[in-house]
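R.M. (postdoc): so does anyone remember the format we settled on? I'll just put the structure tokens first.
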């Protein structure tokens, strides 16, 4: 792995033209196709061609890499169902709909414009786990010979133009989505889709929910006008749009539409963690079934779950980890603090259209403003920092974790993913990123000064190791 080609269990991402090239994409696609044909059958190649759903976001390199992926998949005898320019969760749902052997998504999610990636989805519509991802990686690295098809066994290609429509219909059919009540409210919604694929889905969803929409950055050309991650510092234009049109809510999605962030009626970005917290309040889980989130998710999620008597169980960062724990525990809802909501009544994947429908349903039911919903529970401040990974490895990070545990012996330690130190009202999480060559520091507390202190202590111990 180079400094910029990031390989994880569920995919690979890199800088376009530097590490991620059509040749690399074709090789990884062929490896994934080979896994799909024989990875689930003890090494025996399937007698019949298997189907792979292919979709992409709006990045400028998407059409080029789609052609490379098609060639790689066809070369190992896979039939391709091309859903085209669609959100990531739409591909996941299409895998289940077509009963495909897997899905390949060309998206670098929230990464800057110069990045792209391949994400691999299993036949259950969930991103690959460690074992499957390892087998694909070994084949892509050349440790296993790829079984190329001969002239009469090359895979086929067909299009599916209905994937987005099916996705939206499924969202609106959910019992927790009160579409009729939402339509009666005729919410004024300000929308920013950052010129990603959200422009192809979010306006239609909001139209079906009876909303009046003022939008910016709806073009689906992948030319992001700002950093694409929907964090508060990147949503100033959306806040201005809310104020200009006196909107009830501002909604922003990331480029592949699996994360959603909210701006309140005053134009203030409230933080991505509230997306999951509001979704939990919309669903109202019971005591019998837990809520699952990752280790870096805010305590506002704990408060939302507690309001319904539900407990919170935490998983390592990464959609696949949260999804597997949701399934194992039969959780009613889950997600990540980055604005990703996962509702197994629809599918076990992060889904921004779903999140938007649940949040609007909550507002319609409670008949309050976004800021009033925020004010109902304690407020916390999350502080984030990062350092370049450089020469850090597992051994040196282990030394940092040991030093942190010694510095804070009264904290509850969770080592599922890096190190999370937790108290009743604050926490610190230190972990290597799986999507960028950095080490992340995230802390939360009721007071900013306390969160900043935890970050400072973590970075100081990291610098001294």
């Amino acid at each position: 792995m180079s400094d910029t080609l990031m390989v994880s269990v569920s995919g690979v991402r890199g800088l376009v033209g530097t590490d991620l090239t059509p040749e690399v994409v074709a090789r990884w696609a062929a490896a994934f196709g080979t896994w799909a044909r024989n990875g689930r059958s003890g090494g025996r190649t399937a007698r019949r061609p298997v189907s792979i759903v292919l979709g992409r976001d709006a990045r400028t390199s998407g059409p080029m890499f789609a052609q490379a992926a098609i060639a790689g998949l066809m070369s190992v005898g896979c039939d391709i169902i091309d859903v085209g320019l669609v959100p990531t969760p739409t591909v996941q749902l299409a895998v289940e709909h077509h009963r495909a052997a897997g899905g390949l998504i060309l998206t670098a999610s929230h990464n800057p414009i110069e990045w792209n990636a391949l994400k691999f989805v299993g036949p259950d519509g969930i991103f690959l786990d460690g074992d499957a991802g390892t087998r694909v990686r070994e084949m892509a690295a050349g440790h296993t010979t790829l079984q190329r098809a001969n002239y009469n066994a090359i895979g086929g290609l067909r299009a599916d133009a209905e994937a987005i429509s099916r996705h939206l219909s499924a969202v609106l059919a959910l019992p927790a989505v009160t579409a009729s009540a939402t339509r009666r409210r005729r919410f004024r919604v300000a929308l920013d889709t950052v010129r990603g694929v959200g422009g192809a889905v979010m306006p239609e969803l909001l139209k079906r929910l009876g909303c009046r929409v003022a939008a910016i950055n709806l073009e689906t050309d992948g030319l992001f006008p700002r950093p694409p991650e929907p964090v508060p510092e990147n949503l100033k234009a959306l806040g201005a749009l809310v104020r200009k049109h006196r909107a009830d809510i501002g909604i922003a999605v990331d480029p592949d539409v699996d994360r959603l962030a909210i701006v309140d009626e005053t134009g203030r970005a409230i933080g991505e963690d509230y997306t999951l917290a509001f979704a939990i309040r919309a669903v109202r889980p019971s005591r019998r079934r837990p809520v699952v989130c990752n280790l870096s998710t805010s305590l506002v999620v704990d408060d939302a779950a507690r309001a319904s008597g539900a407990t919170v169980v935490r998983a390592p960062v990464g959609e696949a980890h949260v999804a597997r724990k949701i399934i194992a525990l039969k959780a009613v809802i889950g997600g990540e603090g980055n604005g990703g909501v996962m509702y197994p009544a629809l599918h076990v994947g992060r889904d921004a259209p779903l999140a938007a429908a649940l949040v609007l349903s909550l507002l319609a039911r409670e008949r309050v403003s976004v800021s009033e919903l925020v004010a109902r529970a304690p407020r916390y401040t999350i502080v984030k920092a990062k350092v370049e990974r450089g020469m850090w490895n597992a051994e040196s990070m282990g030394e940092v974790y040991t030093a942190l545990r010694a510095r804070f012996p009264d904290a509850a330690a969770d080592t599922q993913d890096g190190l999370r130190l937790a108290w009743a009202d604050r926490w610190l999480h230190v972990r290597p990123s799986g999507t960028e060559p950095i080490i992340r520091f995230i802390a939360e507390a009721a007071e900013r000064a306390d969160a900043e202190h935890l970050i400072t202590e973590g970075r100081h111990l990291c610098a001294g190791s």
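R.M.: ...and that's the designed sequence above, right after the tokens. Also worth knowing: The CA atoms of residues 292 and 334 lie 4 Å apart. The chain has three domains: 6-161, 166-375, 381-464.
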